[in-house]
# Entry
Amino acid sequence: MEKEIQESDLEFDEAPRRVSSWKRFRRVFFGRKVVIYGVVVISLLVITVIFTPLLAPYDPYTTNVRNILAPPSTAHWLGTDTLGRDILSRIIYGSRNALFIGLIAVGFAATAGMLLGLIAGYFGGIIGAVIMRIIDSIQSIPMIMFAVTIAAFLGGGLQNVVIALGIALIAPYARLMCGQVLSVKQNDYILRAKAIGASDFRIMFKHIVPNCFPPLIVLMTMQVGHAILSEASLSFLGIGIKPPAAAWGSMVSEGYQYLLRSPQLSIVPGLAIMIVVFAYNMAGDGLRDALDPKLRGTL
Amino acid sequence: MTAYLIRRLIQSALIILFTSMVVFTAARFLPGDPALVYVSRDALVKASPQQLEAIRHEFGLDRPIPVQYIHWLGGVLKGDLGRSIFFRTSVRDEISKALPKTLYIGSIAFIISIVFGMPLGIIAAVRRGKWPDTVTTFLANLGITAPQFWVGILLVLVFSLYLGWLPIYGFVSPFDDLGESLQHVILPVVCLQLYPMAAVARQTRSAMLEVIRQDYIRTAWAKGLKERQIIIKHAVRNAIIPVITLIGMNVRNIFGGSVLIEKVFNIPGMGRLAVDALFSQDYAIVQGVILVTSAVVVFSNLIVDLSYGWIDPRIRQD
Amino acid sequence: MTVLLEVKNLKTQFNTEAGLVKAVDGISYEVYEQEIVGLVGESGCGKSVSQLSVMQLIPTPPGKIVEGEVLFEGKDLLKLPENGAEIRAIRGGKIAMIFQEPMTSLNPVMSINQQISEMMQIHQGLTASEARKRSIELLAEVGIPAAESRIDDYPHQFSGGMRQRVMIAMGLSCNPKLLIADEPTTALDVTTQAVLLELMKDMVERFNTALVIVTHNLGVVARYATRIYVMYAGRVVESGKTKDIFSQPLHPYTIGLLKCIPRLDEVRGRRLVPIKGLPPNLVRMPPRCAFFPRCPYRIDRCHKEPWPPLSRVRAEHDVSCFVHMEGKVSGLN
# Structure
């Protein structure tokens, strides 16, 4: 005799345990030790930047010609440089440049790049073509050469370095945005939005931009590392932040002449650069894996 | 396929053209006198107003910018890239001296980055999670984050100063003395290939991991093939496609790296030429260097694009 | 008839984010030489996983074959070293498998010739040109027109149905004793399905190969298989000759399945009756019969005791169901 199946009977079987997306993000992001390392280092960097005057034992600009090129000691943990300035303090002060330049340059690049990409993709036609060709040509010039040139043309100095880096870093954002716009433009929901009478502006910002956030965030995080590296390269070459300002790159360059006698002059600032850039890259890797595993291999 | 080739050639030419425009306008819009491209700052300062007028007229600076550009472009197409202020030679001569040196070191670095980078990436992918993978991934991550100039300095410290095995700097042409030349070139090359090799290894690893998950690899296993055959015959051919894009970008990265390496190792190549010229405000050379570099990069990207068609039969249809 | 493949109490499990999934929870079946056997069940019942386990193609970090024997021509395949020479010789050479997705199962950057020939070169030691000739013949046999010119084409130049034919050709190229077809026609349209199934039947007859068809589509097995195994939640719940199962289905699940499909020989206007409820979640399965929540015929015993064993109720017709074991068959028809 057939029995009626009640809805309640079907609850005998438990539903599968739902893994929440936040939990999953946390698990993947913090799953790898290097990623945790990255986050820790970045936090330390931020703390260092905020508390610079408290952390640095000496003023980074005070020279002391009686104590030049001193080896590490209890008074000066990392020794002194060619003008008797405390290396450790200079490194700590240098962190400010590193962090700010990285963030500002990338912020600028991201905003400008996204805007350009949005325009190029949405309006297409000649405007789009011209914008993308200019982006192509910027990308055909090696980034350092380009940044060096723009910075030199603008006259050097901190501000111009940031602008130069910002321009040099625009390309991937523009491409990303343009690509997203092109693919989303085909989608039905854009057509529907248009049919209801939504303005172009609204469509662009409400529908297209949110889709870009995961790759955008990953890109930005990794580019901060590149920006810091590029700034260091620029100051190593002597463009950008010049002594007596404390910048890691120029410290390496100064120390090169005294390599045999006091290798720490060059080694330590370079190590600082690498540690910070590594941290940003690892954090970026972790973000990419956690936000969207499909992005693996594309960025 | 030929239609595609022609289209890409035109596109490449356009990009180089745009680059020239970008460079030209940038130089013209510098703070300061555009005449600096042609005449030294000293001469400008000492010149009287009439002399300035004459200079401007001589170099066409009083004509509208598009006209100036066309004039300059015409010169470029004939091979005249201008004159260097400080070397008193033509820009073309300076570049012809510097370019081969950069290409020499750069090509070796380029080849090494592929020859070692790809196998490392493949091994890391196939032995995912085990020690070859963790080690390779870690080293590759270091490779893309280490400041190239710093690594160069470290290498100099260890191998030239402490161990005395290799000379510190200088450049010896391979045609003059191959042995000496290679000795001088080892450290710069090792330094220069670090980033490209690390990037290639990472990308190869990601691409391989993607490919290994695919259905056709499962089919290959079901056919009874050995792991080695599957990796080499079936997987790598598919994984290599995104890696080729990266390899194209590495040409650009190697030129960029040269700027730093040539300073550290004191090599008279394109990078150093550009930086020195920027410092001496010898903008004619700067223009020339950027133009030539860009042309090389665009050309290699074109080759990369064409190679897609050779590797991936799906693309050949277009 | 000699037995070709004997699977005994095979159990395969997967470690997933959500827990331990018992994809295959103790199935046993046989395949005799040159017969066509159907393995039927809905998505997620473990039928594909069971076949992959036979071929030892289960990806081992998340998956693991935890118990059982797979006796092929008398030898236990599960005891062979992983990816060793013996199992590799069997894969493709003695047991071949074709998959569900023809669009992605062929390597996009290798020509058809390369993909078919390499099998013969490895298993039969043919030279490249010998293998190529044979590949052309095989393509013609599976009905691909202009085989000689198409042999060097790439997969993307073929339609889905054509690709599946290529897969069949590839599968049979080394004259295997057994061909496993995992949902071979599911991704194709209906007319192509019919054509392809006829082709497969024809080919296995010509090559004297046994065939296991894994599918969720009863219609497919009705016509082609001589014996059927019905699977649910990782186990075999009914097995027997095709005609017996269709004319006198025993397990409530099978009955439910048959009620869902329209038949040509029945009264018009009969309502199709779906099986209420959803497929079970394979994590944390209770030990009782997995079909219990959806079963209209259940008795008390069904949720008190562990899953009933397969028992013979009629000639060559087994079922795993307490209702039948108790002989209370009056309600079932």
About this structure: Chain A has twelve helices and no strands. The interface with chain C takes residues 1-5, 9-10, 12-17, 19, 24 of chain A (CB under 8 Å).
